[in-house]
Write a structure and sequence with these properties.
By secondary structure, the protein is mostly helical. It has three helices and two strands, in the order ααββα. Strands 1-2 form a two-stranded antiparallel sheet.
């Protein structure tokens, strides 16, 4: 069997948004931004003190920002994939139970 070396990395996303980010990463940013835009004004109105409101908004935005950065931008070099792809594979692996037999 003949082996051929591929000249470029086929496992990474194409950076087609200004050469900086991929479409998948842009969708994560838009989704996270829309979620923050939906609930941050509600959190801001919880207290009358403006400093406490800013602190509360920062604390409540931290989980969304962490998830967006983890799934969209952080790549596991050990597994050669982004964490959202790894998470999707782990979730789908639980549904692929079956009876396996040797042929």
């Amino acid at each position: 069997m003949r082996k051929t070396q591929v000249p470029e990395d086929m496992s990474t996303d194409m950076k087609n948004i200004l050469g900086v980010m991929s479409t998948r990463q842009l969708l994560y940013l838009i989704g996270g931004g829309a979620l923050l835009y939906a609930y941050i004004p509600l959190v801001f109105q919880l207290t009358s003190n403006i400093i406490a409101s800013f602190i509360l908004c920062g604390i409540s935005a931290l989980p969304v920002a962490t998830i967006v950065l983890l799934f969209g931008f952080i790549r596991s070099e050990k597994k050669q994939m982004y964490f959202d792809q790894f998470f999707k594979i782990k979730l789908l692996a639980k549904t692929q139970k079956g009876n396996w037999r040797k042929v």
